[in-house]
Amino acid sequence: MGMLDVVGPVMVGPSSSHTLGALKIARFAHKLFGEKPDKVIFYLHGSFAQTYLGHGTDRALIAGILGLREYDYRIKDAYNLAKKENLNYSFVKTDLGDVHPNTVLIRMEKEGKVNEVQGASIGGGAILITKINGVECELTGDYNTLIIVNKDKKGALENILGVLEVNIANLYLKRTNIIEGKALTILELDEIPSNLEKLNNLDCVLRYFYIGSDKE
């Protein structure tokens, strides 16, 4: 049993599931996007949709998309922070299907750039990122994560793994566009990669995003 099991997570907000988990999902989305989006839509499912105002899920999601950590006391002022940052956001109640009741789909947009992250808050502040741009996965956020848009061709994955020189904890791969010949590769890494720039030399890599773990 660890300290977290005894005293609970360090956080600002009333609920580890509806506040802390929501913030961590949105912060993951923030790090994936890499910049402040012009527009964000939070699609709320299940209990998130029913109680997001009363449990502070709304403030947690806004705070996370602005990059705040769970112990930042500015979370309670998330609406004012969003106004200062000129962040255009909206909350939409929806049915995302057969998913965890504490699930949110976050859509971020800026000048034609669009990213979507779907995640669930599964209790005690723990999360699962279940989709990235439509690709199903199960990311906890506890690992350093590398997301690669690559050409869908023979040998692409072998070439990518060949230059990273790190141990892979989990790997997800899916063809995303048959016509354009694109695939999405998601890697959870046991360590911080020191040679990501080598990916720029691979013809099969179109672009990539690195998301460092917040785990301390």
Quick rundown:
It is built from 6 helices and 10 strands, in the order H-H-E-H-H-H-E-E-E-E-E-E-H-E-E-E. With 216 residues, it is an alpha+beta fold. Helix 2 packs parallel to helix 4 and helix 4 runs parallel beside helix 5 (78-84).
Characterize the structure shown.
This protein is of the alpha+beta class. It has two domains: 120 residues, 60s Ribosomal Protein L30, Chain: A (2-Layer Sandwich); 74 residues, ACT domain (Alpha-Beta Plaits, 2-Layer Sandwich), CATH 3.30.70.260. It has a six-stranded mixed β-sheet with strand order 2-1-3-4-5-6. Strands 8-9-7-10 form a four-stranded antiparallel β-sheet, with helices on both faces. It is globular. The N terminus is likely disordered.
The assembly state of the depicted protein chains is: single chain
SSE succession: HHEHHHEEEEEEHEEE
Strand order of the largest sheet: 2-1-3-4-5-6
Main β-sheet description: 6 strands, mixed
Features of this protein?
six-stranded mixed β-sheet, 2 domains, 36% strand, 25% helix, Alpha-Beta Plaits, 60s Ribosomal Protein L30, Chain: A, Ser_deHydtase_bsu
Reconstruct the topology from this structure.
Blueprint: H1 3-7, H2 16-33, E1 39-45, H3 46-51, H4 57-65, H5 78-84, E2 88-93, E3 103-110, E4 113-123, E5 126-132, E6 135-139, E7 144-151, H6 156-164, E8 168-177, E9 182-189, E10 205-211
Parallel strand pairs: 1-2
Antiparallel strand pairs: 1-3, 3-4, 4-5, 5-6, 7-9, 7-10, 8-9
Helix pairs in contact: 2-4, 4-5
